[in-house]
Design goal:
Blueprint (H helix, E strand, L loop, with lengths): L1 E2 L8 H7 L7 E4 L2 E4 L5 H18 L5 E4 L3 E4 L4 E3 L3 E4 L10 E2 L2 E8 L4 H5 L1 H6 L7 E6 L5 E6 L5 E6 L4 E4 L4 E4 H4 L13
Parallel strand pairs: 5-8, 9-10
Antiparallel strand pairs: 1-3, 2-3, 2-6, 4-7, 5-6, 7-9, 10-11, 11-12, 13-14
Amino acid sequence: MIASPQLQWMSPQEYLEWEPMQQLRHEYIDGEVFAMTGGTKPHNRIALNLVTALDSHLAQSSCEVYISDVKVQVATANSYYYPDVVVTCDPRDRESNSIIQHPCLIVEVLSPSTEAYDRGGKFARYRQLETLQEYVLIDSEQIGVDCFRRNEQGLWVLYPYATEDTINLASVGLSLPVTALYRQVKFDAKEGEN
């Protein structure tokens, strides 16, 4: 994401009224607005592969999976984000067509420009969501997945996954090979090919 310096501070309500009229999507963080930049083919393919698996797996459940055009509100942090993938099983989220407030799973596909923030400040805000059970970070430049899962004590535990592993998304009861996330993904030659 990139900052939009021409914009003045906005209240959450001003942001929610202004943002649907914009050509680009914008995230909102405590009064500041940030334009979302485009992704790469690997980024897009990874998200598509995961959404396809989740959508098929959750088809007969009350859970819903959404891609990057649906906002997640972190009310306690005065923020709105567009995660790459979000799943909610909470009936309260059926009240809005554009905002999720009670997700159980959030996934971000990492890019070099956003990785530090996705791992740091954004994760700190996401952790304030009481319903969030898992936060998954998927590398788009090489094979690697970090799944942070909230344990019974409320602590976040890291479960890293590599090429030969099967990722377990406990929040939605889905297991799939890490290689399935990277199906048809081509990395730059300098980073290796898949």
